[in-house]
Design a protein that fits this description.
There is one protein chain. The protein is α+β, with helices and mostly antiparallel strands and 886 residues long. Among the domains are: 113 residues, no CATH class; 149 residues, no CATH class; 91 residues, ATP-grasp fold, A domain (Dna Ligase, domain 1); 152 residues, ATP-grasp fold, B domain (D-amino Acid Aminotransferase, Chain A, domain 1). 38% of the residues lie in helices and 20% in strands. The chain has 33 helices and 34 strands. The strands form seven sheets. Strands 24, 29, 30, 31, 32, 33 and 34 form a seven-stranded mixed sheet that branches. Strands 13, 14, 15, 16, 17 and 18 form a six-stranded antiparallel sheet that branches. Strands 7, 8, 9, 10 and 11 form a five-stranded antiparallel sheet that branches. Helix 15 packs antiparallel against helix 16 and helix 17 packs across helix 33. The radius of gyration is 28 Å and the shape is globular. 45% of the residues are buried.
């Protein structure tokens, strides 16, 4: 949201609301942290959990006013609602769940005279209350599943449980959906397939945000299992969150005590209490944000969809093309909604045309029935007969890159920046109709219309930059995420006119396609490839919707939606002034795309051909760094020819040089693709069999040996890089870090490295995963790294690590920008040892990647950082041309 607002039209002001209800004018650098816990409360001061548990501000306990002010001051400046008018003209609400989409913040803003986005107070209050909305929908004649409610007081009267379970199974039927009444983002939702007593209890408890823990269950866990159990329990997406109240079980009454015996704020304190054994047979752990009533519904068999409904310029509702949701699990849960690649989104939903029309008409009718304004997201199911069941009207929508919000708006030709402008203008119109300060709001609408017209006129004069994304390796999906993010940052920043270009094909032939926005925002690289190579004509209903929305498209995009178009490197050179390569691994980081671009004198981002060829090869990189006196992991290559000729000898060579466990990875890929910790010979054999296989699909048996997911991709290569596992040893402190850089030319034309503060990366598994590196909400990156609690030592160690990373970049002739991964040992005598692991010449540029955290510390917003990368590419080409002339 913050980045996608058009900087030609708006000045975004980040206001963070913490979980205690404080409004904080946020230091803009914190916008780019991966999660709230990466900046609030400040991890360097408050988050010293030995087990790396998630710490949110409520885990600090009951703070005094003075203590709270210190916590807030480290993130920004506290402000109060009556001060909003001094900072903002309009409030774009990027809030979900209670207090954000329930009418509370809407009412506060109306009181303070600040126009805001989306629905007003009444539809918001109805939209958050699942029990109330179901009753209203039934009264309005919308089809509904069988429903029942259950109160927490009835459920926790343990003697009634079996009777409750039997009655609800009988009344609702199986399968059934169990959900919290006042939550968003599918938090606290489960699907029950059978009447199993244990499963029923777990599902109901999850919706109430309580957990019943038997002592025998706890004692059976290993130390590692206890930590992992609490990590899941205290994560609101799959558990109950923190803090918790603890209720002891009374053996005499066979019930939980009426009052909690204690409140526990920190996960570490909960671990200590449970390990103390100072409790009897069973406990009830209850979140402070528990639910008092939950909803149980019969499960609807059919295709699941989500549909964004918007207001046209004349005020009537128009349903955008509904999206079909294809899930890996039965519940479209938090991760499925917001993490790209976990679920599939197909637009429009694959049903007969009359069913599609029925979905859209009912969504529009519900939008009107609930008195929604501006936009809403309405979820539901459609069965084979075409019966439509509208399930969950949401008066706001997720606004991550993978969200339906942008995905469906793209189908009418609006990129994210343009759609947000539409939302703001339509919201102003809605607020003007309320009769509160209409004259002032109408002046804002008139000014916005004038600025919007001027923006369209100026757009054609901006320099064009091709953003190349996709590829054909296992890293193609992350490359799409990076490319989309680069496109969106450039589109909203105002300096350039970005042109998205999809690359597919193979090493022998690169196939390029210029993309319209609706294809760019398809689910993943494979969906994009299918769209650009398919001969299918567009769904007729899509054309009808686009025609109906054409006034919106023309007003906010300035032109109608186009079609995918094949393009060559030569044609690209005639159309654009520069190229941003948003590709990872091969092709992109191996110098092949760069070679094509240099042939047509096109400036590009990142390192040149020679350096790229070196850094893509991890074995050659290690050899070159070691030759120049830098510390790297012990390493060797296991070649396919040697493996196939004599497997026993290959085992012997590897095991003679390396002790288990060690690291195995492709020698020429990036992005944590197929990086595994190998613990025994069976895992080494499985890894080699997969990497050296002849068939395209990996076999299930070897996948299982390595603990890979059934649908996880695994590359086919001719070489495996074996590296010794780097461990803490006798170091006083041991960290995995990743450091970014940006290059410049000084006044003498010499290359200068601007090194960023390294981030400390925390892996939840054996190695840092693809998701933890690049997807918002996964993993934890702390910037700057926590080298020391002593300020002077923190600076000394950080400076030394940055010098080591800079030396590696210099040795490898890195240019433009890069990310360097390393391990850092800090010894008791103050000695520092940096072990270089990997150099990424085209680092991931997804919204969550930590290079944006790092450049923010040096004063660069993402768009400014991207502009700096492009500016260097142009300066480099000019320097090369000047040298050629001389």
């Amino acid at each position: 949201m913050y980045d996608n607002l058009s900087k030609d039209l708006f000045e975004p002001v980040p206001i963070f609301i913490d979980s205690l209800g404080n409004f904080i004018l946020l230091q803009w650098e914190n916008i780019y942290k991966g999660t709230i816990r990466d900046f609030y409360p400040n991890p360097a001061r408050y988050q010293q959990s030995p087990h790396f548990f998630q710490y949110y501000v409520e885990s600090l306990g009951d703070l005094s006013d003075q203590e709270l002010q210190v916590v807030i001051s480290l993130a920004g400046e506290q402000i109060f609602p009556h001060q909003f008018k001094h900072h903002i003209d309009f409030a774009f609400l990027a809030l979900h769940g209670p207090y954000g989409e329930d009418g509370n913040i809407q009412g506060m803003l109306e009181w303070e005279g600040i126009p805001y986005s989306g629905c007003g107070i009444l539809p918001s209050a109805i939209g958050i209350n699942k029990v109330a909305q179901k009753r209203i929908m039934a009264q309005a004649g919308f089809a509904s599943p069988i429903q029942q409610t259950l109160s927490k007081s009835d459920w926790l009267a343990l003697n009634n449980r079996e009777k409750i379970r039997a009655a609800l199974v009988d009344q609702v039927g199986l399968p059934m959906v169990v959900k919290a009444s006042f939550q968003g983002s599918s938090i606290g939702v489960s699907v029950l397939k059978d009447a199993d007593k244990r499963n029923f209890t777990q599902a109901v408890n999850r919706s109430f945000f309580v957990y019943e823990l038997a002592k025998v269950e706890w004692l059976a866990f290993s130390t590692e299992e206890k930590v992992q159990f609490l990590r899941s329990l205290t994560d609101i997406r799959e558990g109950i969150g923190m803090p918790v109240h603890v209720y002891e079980f009374d053996e005499q009454t066979l019930a939980y005590q009426a009052k909690p015996s204690r409140r526990i704020d920190k996960p570490d304190d909960l671990l200590a209490f449970l390990n103390s054994r100072n409790w009897k047979s069973q406990l009830l752990l209850e979140s402070l944000d528990t639910e008092e009533e939950i909803l149980l519904e019969s499960f609807i068999k059919g295709k699941e969809f989500s549909c964004i409904v918007v207001e046209a310029l004349d005020g009537h509702p128009i349903a955008l093309p509904p999206t079909e949701i294809i899930k890996r699990s039965q519940v479209f849960d938090y991760r499925s909604k917001y993490l790209p690649g976990i679920s599939r989104k197909i637009t429009p939903i694959d049903v007969p045309g009359e069913h599609l029309n029925s979905i859209r008409k009912q969504c529009e009718s519900l939008f009107t029935a609930l008195q929604c304004q501006v936009y809403a997201r309405i979820d539901g199911f459609v069965n084979e007969k075409g019966d439509v069941f509208l399930n969950d009207p949401n008066t706001t929508s997720g606004m991550l890159p993978s969200s339906f919000f942008f995905h469906q708006a793209a189908e009418i030709g609006l990129n994210p920046s343009q759609f947000l402008t539409y939302i703001i203008r339509t919201s102003l119109v809605a607020r003007a109709k309320s009769g509160k300060r209409p004259a002032r709001i109408k002046q804002m609408i008139a000014r916005l219309d004038t600025d919007l017209a001027a923006l369209h006129e100026a757009g054609s004069k901006k320099p064009k930059v091709a953003v190349i994304l996709g590829g054909y390796s296992t890293e193609r999906h992350i490359s799409v995420e990076s490319g989309r993010n680069i496109y969106e940052k450039l589109a909203s920043a105002g300096k350039f006119n970005p042109i998205p270009v999809f690359l597919t094909g193979n090493d022998e032939e690169h196939q390029l396609y210029r993309l319209p926005i609706n294809v760019l925002l398809k689910d993943n690289a494979d969906d994009i490839k299918e769209k650009v190579t398919s001969k299918k004509v567009s769904h007729p209903l899509l054309e009808d919707i686009r025609k109906a929305c054409l006034p919106i498209t023309l007003k906010f995009a300035g032109e109608p939606l186009g079609k995918p178009k094949p393009v060559t490197y030569e044609e690209l050179a005639q159309e654009v002034e520069a190229v941003f390569i948003a590709l990872h691994g091969r092709p992109g980081e191996d110098g092949s795309v760069q070679k094509h671009l240099e042939g047509f004198n096109l400036p590009y981002n990142g390192s040149g051909v020679a350096s790229s060829k070196t850094t893509i090869n991890k074995f050659e990189t290690n050899e070159l760094l070691a030759k120049n006196g830098m510390k790297v992991a012990g390493h060797m290559l296991l070649r396919k020819t040697d493996w196939l000729e004599n497997k026993a000898e290959a085992f012997a060579i590897v095991e003679a040089g390396f002790q288990y466990p060690f690291i195995a990875k492709p020698a020429d890929d990036g992005c944590s693709s197929a990086v595994k910790k190998i613990k025994n010979r069976a895992e080494l054999e499985a890894f080699a069999q997969l990497m050296f296989r002849a068939e395209p699909q990996p076999d299930a048996e070897n996948m299982s040996v390595l603990g890979l997911k059934p649908n996880e991709e695994f590359p086919v290569k001719r070489e495996i890089l074996i590296e010794s596992l780097i461990v803490k040893g006798d170091a006083a402190q041991f960290l995995e870090v990743t450091g970014g850089l940006l290059t410049h030319y000084d006044s003498a034309g010499q290359l200068v490295y601007e090194m960023f503060e390294p981030s400390e990366t925390l892996a939840s598994g054996e190695v840092l995963s693809l998701e933890e590196k690049f997807l918002a909400g996964e993993g934890q990156n702390i910037t700057p790294s926590r080298f020391s609690t002593v300020p002077s030592e923190q600076v000394r160690i950080s400076d030394q690590v940055k010098k080591d990373l800079e030396k590696a970049a210099y040795v490898l002739q890195v240019e433009g920008y890069a990310r360097i991964d390393a391990f850092v040992h800090i010894f008791a005598d103050g000695q520092i040892e940096t072990t270089i692991i990997e150099i990424n010449s085209l680092p991931g540029m997804t919204p969550a990647t930590c290079i944006f955290h790092q450049c923010a510390m040096n004063g660069y917003k993402p768009a400014q950082f991207i502009h700096g990368i492009l500016d260097f590419g142009a300066q480099r080409l000019a320097k090369i041309r000047k040298a050629a002339v001389n």
